[in-house]
Amino acid sequence: MSVVPRRSIDDPGLADEFLRLVGDGDEYGAVEVVTALLDDGVAPQRIMTELIAGTQARVGELWAANEWSVAREHAATAISERALAAVAARTNVRPTRGRVTIACVDGEWHALPTRILAEMLRLDGWRVDFLGANVPGPHLITHLHQTGPDVVALSCMIATRLPRAHAAITACRAAGVPVIAGGRGFGPGGRYAQVLGADAWAAGAEEAVRRLARNWPPHGQDPQLSAFLGDDEYTYVVRNRGQLISTAMSRLTDAYPAMREYNQRQLDSTAEDMAHIVDFLAAALYVSETPIFTDFVAWTNSVLQARGVPAVALRVGLDSVRSQLRDYPRASAILDAGAAEIK
Known about the structure:
There is one protein chain. This protein is of the alpha/beta class. The chain folds into 3 domains: 14-89, Methyltransferase, Methionine Synthase (B12-binding Domains), Chain A, domain 1 (Orthogonal Bundle), CATH 1.10.1240; 99-226, Cobalamin-binding domain (Rossmann fold, 3-Layer(aba) Sandwich); 232-339, Orthogonal Bundle (Globin-like). Helices cover 59% and strands 7% of the residues. It contains 15 helices and 5 strands. It has helices at 14-23, 27-39, 44-64, 70-89, 112-123, 137-147, 162-174, 191-195, 205-213, 232-239, 241-255, 264-287, 290-306, 311-322, 329-339; strands at residues 99-104, 127-132, 151-155, 179-182, 200-202. Strands 2-1-3-4-5 form a 5-stranded parallel sheet, with helices on both faces. Strand 3, helix 7 and strand 4 form a beta-alpha-beta unit. Helix 3 (44-64) runs antiparallel to helix 5, helix 6 runs parallel beside helix 7 (162-174) and helix 12 (264-287) packs antiparallel against helix 13 (290-306). The radius of gyration is 22 Å and the shape is globular. The termini are far apart. The model has no long low-confidence stretch (mean pLDDT 90). It comes from Paractinoplanes pyxinae. Keywords: Cobalt, Metal-binding. InterPro entries: Cbl-bd_cap, Cobalamin-bd, Cobalamin-bd_sf, Met_Synthase/Corrinoid, Meth_synthase_dom. Residues 97-223 form the B12-binding domain. This is Cobalamin-dependent protein.
């Protein structure tokens, strides 16, 4: 067991030390750090948002830069969760506010940010029902009818989940429960949250705590006003997703001869990338927001280049999808805008 000296949370070296501990899978060392901070009187909210959440953001950056593997990223996340649990175990606040249900939308697996929000709200006096990752919409609504919360906090970290987030938001509000949305999947400043009918949006756990502490619930719009999105092009892309991906993979081999030398792992990764292209295109069509796709392409290009995949491979991938959608002007325009992001 490593021995970690007590330090102030403002110590500039603390973040690097905690990152090393979670990266090494040192659960005991990570827990020692957070408990020592608590012993020194540091507010648990600061430990959760500044140290644990801040470190997790750096973990994601290291994976994107190909400096950490997926396995190491997952192991580090598990250690961060254990450290968060240690902080939560040292605090006990009796509920004085209402009841909040916290969930990740169907298909969303990034649960640590919502777990931090759950603990932050519990510290602020809320009775919290934390449902965790990947909560199917019907099960969420059943829970609302069984428990009658005052509000639902819904997280979406990846824009491809926006159609499912929309279904959940609409169903919650139809059940009479307002929704506060969070997560980068809702776009810069939460711009897509309003389109999908959420009553409010928060950039992070601290902002969500402040929003829910005052003037809640807000007077939102009629949920039916935003209940229907998507069009014929979106429907076509979703219904023909499998065919678009498989045809693109076939054409990609002809257009990018280097693929003939790929092993099975590389082929599987390429198929996943093609699926992401189609899914992000569908999400952009769903809410009529081209930046959803262009931001994805720019990010994917940087990730692939960090892994030694040339930009031409992504461009060819986009072309292989676009060639199947010549009769769909909005989809073609979005794909063209994505191609323009590849430098």
